[in-house]
Every structure is written in structure tokens, then in C-alpha cells.
Amino acid sequence: MEEFIYYNNLFDIYEALLTEKERVTFRDYYHEDLSLSEIASEKNVSRSAVYKTLKNVIDKLNYYEDNLHIYKKKTALVEIVNLEDLALLKNKLKEILDM
After folding, report:
1. What is the secondary structure of the chain as a DSSP string?
2. What is the pLDDT of residue 7?
3. How much is the pLDDT for 81?
4. 67, 12 in Cβ contact below 8 A?
5. pTM, whole model, 2 decimals?
6. Where do the structural domains in the chain lie, given as residue ranges?
7. Hey, what CATH class is 1-68 in?
8. Residue 2 CB-density burial (10 A; 0-12 exposed, 13-18 middle, 19+ buried)
9. Backbone angles phi, psi at 78, to 5 degrees
10. With contact defined as beta carbons under 8 Å apart, do 19 and 54 qualify?
11. CA-CA distance, 22 to 58, in Å (whole number)?
């Protein structure tokens, strides 16, 4: 479940960097909860083609996050919003800037 949430968060951030086919396939599988077979039947492609598209999307999302760190920075910023210790807040912001 944690992985599901993680990839949905990455998708929300990097969706515009994916092709239309990749976006639709990801949404069908992760948002609409369709099976690979259902997607394949709907798109008139093989189940393995759907699997390959999903794997490519996951690979791309990982690549974008590994290089851009937007999700990591966003998560860190959300964490420090509630900090009351000013020195700790400054240190956490410096960590984010160094990412």
C-alpha cells in the first residue's frame, strides 16, 4: 500500500512529463483499479504491452525523482512546517537546499 501511495504522489508531480498513453494507462491501473487484462481488452492490446507501459512509467517516475528530488523536498517541507524550534527549522531548510 505504501508503494501505491508513493507512485501516485510521484505521478501527481511528474504527470506532465509522461506521454498521453502512459498517463491513461497509469490512471486506469492505479486510479481506476483496472486489471492488466481489463486495460488490455479496453485498448485492444496485449496484457504484456500494458505491463510494459506500466513498468516504463514506474521507471520514468523513479528516474525523475532520483534526479529532481521534488517529492523528497516536498515531504521534507511538509515535515518542517510544524517545527517550532527556529534553529532546527533553519537546519532542516539548509538540508533541503543542499538536496
Report:
1. -HHHHHHHHHHHHHGGGS-HHHHHHHIIIIIS---HHHHHHHHTS-HHHHHHHHHHHHHHHHHHHHHH-HHHHHHHHHHHTT---HHHHHHHHHHHHT-
2. 97
3. 79
4. no
5. 0.84
6. 1-68, 69-99
7. mainly alpha
8. exposed
9. -60, -40
10. no
11. 10
* pLDDT means over runs of 10, the chain (99 residues): 94 98 98 96 97 98 97 89 78 83
Contact 99, 73 (CB under 8 A): yes
Q: Nine-digit cell at 65?
A: 525523482
In this structure, what C-alpha cell is assigned to residue 99? 538536496
- Largest interatomic CA distance in the chain: 58
Chain centroid, CA 72 distance in Å: 11
Give the type of residue at 7: Y
**What's the pLDDT score for residue 92?**
81
Cell of residue 64, nine digits: 525523475
